[in-house]
Amino acid sequence: MEDATEEVPGPLAALLTGGRFAALAVSGIRSALVPMIEGMKPSDDGNPMSYRWTVMSMTELAAPASSLDVARIREVFPILSELVSGKPLVYLDNAASTQKPVQVIDAIANHYRRSNANVHRGIHELSNRATDAYDGARDKVAAFFGVADSAELVWTRGTTEGLNLLAHAWGTTHLRAGDEILLSVLEHHSNLVPWQMVAQRTGAKLRFIDIDEQGRLDLSTLDDLLTERTKLVSITHVSNALGTVNPVALIAERARAVGAVMIVDGAQSAPHLPVDVPSLGADFYVFSGHKMCGPTGIGGLWGRREALESLAPFHGGGDMIEFVELESSTYAQLPHRLEAGTPNIAGAVGLAAATDYLTAVGREAILAHERSLLAYAIERMSEIPDMTILGPRDLSERSGVVSFTLADIHPHDLATILDSEGVAIRAGHHCTQPLMKRLGVGSTARASFYLYNTPGEVDALVDALQKARTLFGY
Ligand code: PMP
């Protein structure tokens, strides 16, 4: 789709009517880290790539306007009433971690108040309560992801641990010198570094899907990249740095066609997209509880049963065994075989409460709300001179993340100024240093939305950004 240039109503109005709009005036960047290249057009300047445009077209808007009662939602998130720098907190760092509703806070507190004991081993009332809560949590979280057999859900500390588990338990036993692991340049360090370690250990080779000037995966190279040497493909569902939603089901199908195992990094899709995990067609999917209103220190690894069976035990210890001799052991059934030691029981209980909460609010409604906020944010931010917004132009190809640079103000300075206005955003490389290098920037600022954010908070962000501009003499 070429850029549209006709005069149309503002993005939010167009979103409400399901129409088409073109309104984003996004100008060049004069970052301290990257020299300004005037008049740059996409794709005519090689690397570092041009992701700049002056008029953005946004079509195929997948979501209707928000139907959420955000005022009521905000009432159950106590932290949102905090003052920061004497101002109401505007929390726009949801891609890093999300806030917790009272339902989650109470579930954890009540667990410790009334049911705390170790699971599976004790034959006493509290142990039974804890075991019931813990096993029930697995069933609930599995169901949230459309997984019928909860034994296919392995608890982890989060996405990073899930990927490391796979790299070690699958990678070190299945990869040989000359095999290839296909990743993308969009990946979070969690989906790069474990594979680098495994590649060094096994002699396997890393290959990468590149991106286009909008930060979308360039799938035109898939035919070349996917061969009989490809043993593993591991791709993020949603980019935490740009918000790009990747067509992982399509990639999984292509991976399967060459006999490769497919992993989806779901850290940013589990909270924001209504994902029916098995229908993605992948072998494994990993996610983190803290990014979806759940507690820190808990997350999951889903695997097709045969795929999980192909994993060597990862950590050894209590709970993952069947019989232990001094010299050898036999192992427990799935999922316990991959869960050594006392688990994060309260974490699992809290995460189940989070999935109950998100289900009650409605995941489609949450997605529509985030898309409407995203459209409004891009419209308002585009009013700011010297603003550069990165990522896909089509809203249906991105989640509620706006990565940006403003004039030559260092993103860390921006975040600091915004913090003094009560606005929490993130600045830096977002654990995607290779992506930043590919884009030709050192870092970006990033605002990311969730169900409790409001258009008023977008206005507060824009006001604070305008203030930062003024402070820097623009
Ligand atoms: N992958 C992606 C896409 C992420 O956004 C994150 C968190 N920023 C991770 C992996 C790692 O998640 P965690 O730190 O919760 O393990």
TrEMBL record:
Domain Aminotransferase class V: 90-461
Domain of life where this protein originates: Bacteria
One GO MF term attached to the UniProt entry: pyridoxal phosphate binding
Keywords of the record: Lyase, Pyridoxal phosphate, Transferase
GO biological process, one term: cysteine metabolic process
Function recorded in the entry: Catalyzes the removal of elemental sulfur and selenium atoms from L-cysteine, L-cystine, L-selenocysteine, and L-selenocystine to produce L-alanine.
UniProt-listed PANTHER family: CYSTEINE DESULFURASE, CYSTEINE DESULFURASE 1, CHLOROPLASTIC
Stated family: Belongs to the class-V pyridoxal-phosphate-dependent aminotransferase family. Csd subfamily.
Name this protein carries in UniProt: Probable cysteine desulfurase
Organism name: Longimicrobium terrae
